[in-house]
TrEMBL record:
<dbReference type="InterPro" id="IPR029058">
    <property type="entry name" value="AB_hydrolase_fold"/>
</dbReference>
<keyword id="KW-0809">Transit peptide</keyword>
<dbReference type="InterPro" id="IPR000073">
    <property type="entry name" value="AB_hydrolase_1"/>
</dbReference>
<protein>
    <recommendedName>
        <fullName>Palmitoyl-protein thioesterase ABHD10, mitochondrial</fullName>
        <ecNumber>3.1.1.93</ecNumber>
        <ecNumber>3.1.2.22</ecNumber>
    </recommendedName>
</protein>
<dbReference type="GO" id="GO:0102390">
    <property type="term" value="F:mycophenolic acid acyl-glucuronide esterase activity"/>
</dbReference>
<comment type="function">
    <text>Acts as an acyl-protein thioesterase that hydrolyzes fatty acids from acylated residues in proteins. Regulates the mitochondrial S-depalmitoylation of the nucleophilic active site residue of peroxiredoxin-5/PRDX5, a key antioxidant protein, therefore modulating mitochondrial antioxidant ability. Also catalyzes the deglucuronidation of mycophenolic acid acyl-glucuronide, an active metabolite of the immunosuppressant drug mycophenolate.</text>
</comment>
<dbReference type="Pfam" id="PF12697">
    <property type="entry name" value="Abhydrolase_6"/>
</dbReference>
<dbReference type="InterPro" id="IPR052382">
    <property type="entry name" value="ABHD10_acyl-thioesterase"/>
</dbReference>
<keyword id="KW-0378">Hydrolase</keyword>
<dbReference type="GO" id="GO:0008474">
    <property type="term" value="F:palmitoyl-(protein) hydrolase activity"/>
</dbReference>
<feature type="domain" description="AB hydrolase-1">
    <location>
        <begin position="55"/>
        <end position="253"/>
    </location>
</feature>
């Protein structure tokens, strides 16, 4: 297959009103041929976007199997409008939910990477409250980082970072993946507490497959084990990749991810 098959025009959806309005970019691949399966929904991680290698490979897999696929950029990411520093879990969740409801698939299988795993779990909770959303048929979580603000960032804050949060409303840290530093705002941290999922039972109502690298410097593999304890009602598979890092984007990692997706398509 040539890459020409994977070139799409992004579309835009306005989410929020007044000063909170932002243009959210998304790419929706239609189902083709006789294939019948859920729409694959890609949810990126913090500062990642829908043009990353795992997102592109998921779209390629959808194309080769005639499946619909939906990718979006959160506000402040990729092709979407809005300021990154205005971003919170609530805001990015609102955007993901708005794009899904706007494109109106009947059934979805969500693939969430890192922070996208947290948003996927919150999405499941929000969809469960609604009558008008799609049926959630499965979830593949790649190095999921639910509650990363309270569980992984706050306990490790330095005095200087705490002071910066208090005085400036944010702090910066060097990124291993970009020349630009990561920026964590006070709003993101406070909103993270409101969106905490690791405080009780999470009911997704669908099978879940978690893939986690054991050499992940950002999300320790113990965090994935903690998540499993909060999913007692679901059919959960946890795959550890012994030499895997946080990104899990090597060819062999992508193969594992796509195999997990394939395994959940009914």
């Amino acid at each position: 297959m040539s890459d020409a098959n994977f070139i799409h025009d992004q579309q835009y959806l306005t989410v929020g009103e007044g000063e909170a309005a932002r243009e959210i970019a998304y790419i929706a691949r239609s189902q083709s041929g006789q294939a019948s399966g859920p729409t694959l929904v890609w949810l990126s991680g913090y500062r990642s976007d829908m043009s990353g290698s795992k997102a592109i490979e998921l779209d390629r897999f959808a194309a080769e199997n005639g499946l619909a696929c939906l990718r979006l950029d959160y506000s402040g990411h990729g092709l979407s409008g809005g300021k990154f520093t205005d971003g919170t879990i609530s805001r990015w969740l609102e955007e993901a939910l708005a794009v899904i409801l706007h494109t109106a698939p009947d059934r979805i299988l969500v693939v969430g990477s890192s922070m996208g795993g947290w948003i996927a779990l919150r999405l499941a909770q929000e969809l469960a409250k609604r009558q008008d959303g799609p049926k959630l048929e499965g979830m593949v979580l790649i190095a999921p980082a639910p509650d990363f603000t309270t569980d992984l960032i706050e306990p490790n804050l330095t005095k200087k970072e705490k002071a910066s949060l208090a005085d400036r409303g944010y702090f910066e840290e060097r990124s291993a993946y970009s020349p630009e530093p990561n920026i964590y705002t006070r709003a993101l941290m406070e909103d993270g507490r409101d969106n905490s999922v690791l405080k009780g039972i999470i009911e997704t109502g669908c099978p879940v497959h978690i893939l986690q690298g054991m050499k992940d410097p950002d999300v320790p593999y113990q965090h994935a084990m903690k998540l499993v304890e909060h999913l007692p009602a679901d059919d959960v598979v946890l795959t550890f990749v012994r030499d895997g890092d946080h990104r899990l984007s090597r060819p062999q990692d992508i193969e594992r991810i796509l195999a997990a997706v394939k395994g959940l398509i009914r």
